[in-house]
Amino acid sequence: MKNIHKFIYPAFTVFVFLLSGCSKDFLERTPLDSIVDENYYQTDEQVLMGTAALYNIVWFDYNDKASFAVGDARGGTLFSGSSWTSHVRFTTSSTEDEVLYSWRAFFNTIGQCNTIIRNVNKFAGAAVSESIKKHAIAEARFMRGLAYSYLVRNYQAVPIITDNTALLTDTTLTRNTVESVWEFIIRDFRYAAQNLPAIPVAKGRITKWSAEGMLAKMFLTRAGLNHSEGSRDQTDLDSARYYAKDVIDNSGAKLVANYADLFKTANNNNIESLFALQWVYNGEWGTQNTLQAYMAFNSSITGFSDGWGIDHGATADILKEYEAADSIRRKATFMFPGDRYNYIHQIVTNPDGTQSIEELVVTNGNRANVKKYVVGLASDNDGRVANMSTAINTYMLRLAEVYLIYAEAVMGNANATSDAEALKYFNAVRTRAGLAAKTSITFDDIFHEKRIECAMEGVQWYEFVRLYYFNPTKALTILSNMDKGNYTITHVQGSNPPKWNITYNPVHYSVDAAHFFLPYPEVELTQAPNLRKEPIPYTFTEDL
């Protein structure tokens, strides 16, 4: 699969639009030599196939490493002693891979979405139903809005692009204001919410509820933009509350009873998932999930030559955030020495040199290594594991997060709330984790809960961006006070239930406004001089 568009201004290189991916549901691979714009979009099935790549390969360069290097390392969840340390310490430079790969993935997604919108509008045949045309365009606008939401939260002002072909001759294009980008995002998700069905056309496809959940998330974030410190726009908060509640009441989504079950390949596209990237383990490069390769602490867990995660794990700070009783989420997210996983196995070399497969008992030293998205051997996953490849979905939005969005939107600008509905959904997240319900909640309670609930899901950095919008002092203070030093975990032998002693060696890295957001990739600044100009407002039209 070639890149659809690589953002290199003033000449944006146009690549051929190819489809890729495979699964039993809707990522069936279409022969590449059969796809021609003018004759391909002739049936409903072909139009839907045209959007299949939006669910995996266009996001690969972000999901592969940047999702956790940016989303978790910058967010204070992931520690690394050898890789991504600049994100841990907020010394990220404009030449680092994750800076460029994120930028490239997001603009590649935008380029492919624009191509789909153009192709459906221009080439869809008479046999294609109007509902499927709108569905495909809605999928593309959903993904385009999502890509822009990542761009604006990482790089701030960026160019808004809706016509790839115009970029070949346009030498005036420059950045658009943050306010314009947010308005563009909201419009794309609104279109998606209005034109996607309530029931997915195929398992794993996005729905009206996927878009409304994202609208709730985006309104909650935008509410703090350009407001005095500590305050947020009430209209946006009300919109976040409305959309979150509609999802909660009418989508049919429910929390999965067992938190650990969320992160098993057998439970892809479960009742809690509102939108997830769809990966395959045996497709073309870029259609698979590689997170296990980087995070499993050795190859005995994966069964292949990957499993390079021994030097990565939880930060000391996130370990201190776990309540003593929160063992369910901790164990599903981070492995402690002495932890046992009866649904994950490891390859063990016996004294006589033979090998056997046994239940995983963690003996990986004295660090909390990553468990989430580490799914184990092929035999643990109905065969769906290969070297650097698993089929586990990447969650982009779960109902649990919508519950917490709703609670925060209800609270609004108040310091606390005891609203019965807000507490109901906030406590649903806690009680699933085996924790006691609360009778009132503050912003800090919700911020903490989401940090634990969504740890190692690429979410936390964007929570800090949202906080920074309306309370930059607080965001910078929390980040600067995080303990990102070394620690030692010792399993208390014979303890039942298991107990551990943790010794911390605190280290803190100061974070200031100048280093909060990601820098533009140096290669883009070199080739795109207009990125250095002041951003301008975007002129909106009805047809985007």
UniProtKB/TrEMBL annotation:
Q: Where in the cell is it found?
A: Cell outer membrane
| Segments forming domain RagB/SusD | 278-534
Q: Which intervals hold domain SusD-like N-terminal?
A: 82-220
> Superkingdom of this entry's organism?
Bacteria
| Key words, A-Z | Cell outer membrane, Membrane, Signal
Q: Does the keyword Membrane apply?
A: yes
Q: Is Lipid metabolism a UniProt keyword of this protein?
A: no
Record Pfam families: SusD-like_3, SusD_RagB
Primary residence: membrane
Family to which the UniProt record says this protein belongs: Belongs to the SusD family.
What's this protein's name? RagB/SusD family nutrient uptake outer membrane protein
Organism name? Xanthocytophaga flava
